[in-house]
Amino acid sequence: MIQMTKTPAVTAENTDWMTGFYNLVSALVQQGFSQDSATLHVVSFTQMSYAYARKFSQDYGEDYGSDFWHWYTQSDGGFFVCPQTEKTYRVEVHSNYYRGEMSAQALGMTVSLYALCVLAESGHDFLIESYHRLRDFAVRHSEWAAIGGAID
Questions:
Q1: N or C: which end of the chain has fewer CB within 10 A?
Q2: CATH number of the domain that 16 lies in?
Q3: Domain residues for 76?
Q4: Which of the four pLDDT bands, split at 50, 70 and 90, describes residue 4?
């Protein structure tokens, strides 16, 4: 008889922005990136996330600059960013024929997945694994249907 062990659920904790940012830089340096390259990758991740939020949500674009962002660190080493608000965003991703509404957290996961996908194209295992960790986490989110519709 094979006994199956239950894998503990992955959780996400809201981390201070600078702590999350520099923890990711440190993780990239540990993976062999130079300090400058690691910092550039993290800045690129955040800037792409903001840009995708503007591209996909007219609501976000209307009040761009008024939303602060949360940094979330997952218990499995994954991460994502999201607007720091309780608003619901109208989202359109034309390339995936998606139109719907999402919470700020779901929008953040969506745009973080898009940004990580671009960074993962470098072929670096850490970035590829980061994408998959976030996607695996998002699959269990209550708004997975919306997130999945927007990314797939």
A1: N
A2: 3.30.70.3580
A3: 11-149
A4: very low
- Does 2 map to a domain? no
Residue 3: predicted pLDDT: 52
Q: Is 71 a domain residue?
A: yes
Give the strands of the sheet with 79-83, arranged side by side: 12-15, 69-74, 79-83
Q: Is the pTM of this model over 0.70?
A: yes
pLDDT tens by residue, 142-151: 999 999 999 9
Q: How many domains does the chain have?
A: 1
Q: List, as one string, the DSSP characters of the chain.
A: -PPPPPPPPP-EEEE-HHHHHHHHHHHHHHTT--HHHHHHHHHHHHHHHHHHHHHH-HHHHHTTTS--EEEEEETTS-EEEEESS--EEEEEEGGGTEEEEEEHHHHHHHHHHHHHHHHHTT--HHHHHHHHHHHHHHHTSTTHHHHHHHH-
pLDDT, tens digit, 9 for 90 and up, residues 53-94? 999 998 876 655 556 899 999 999 999 999 998 889 999 999
Q: Would residue 1 count as lying in a domain?
A: no
Domain assignment of residue 54, yes or no: yes
CA neighbours within 13 Å on the CB side: how many for 133?
Answer: 20
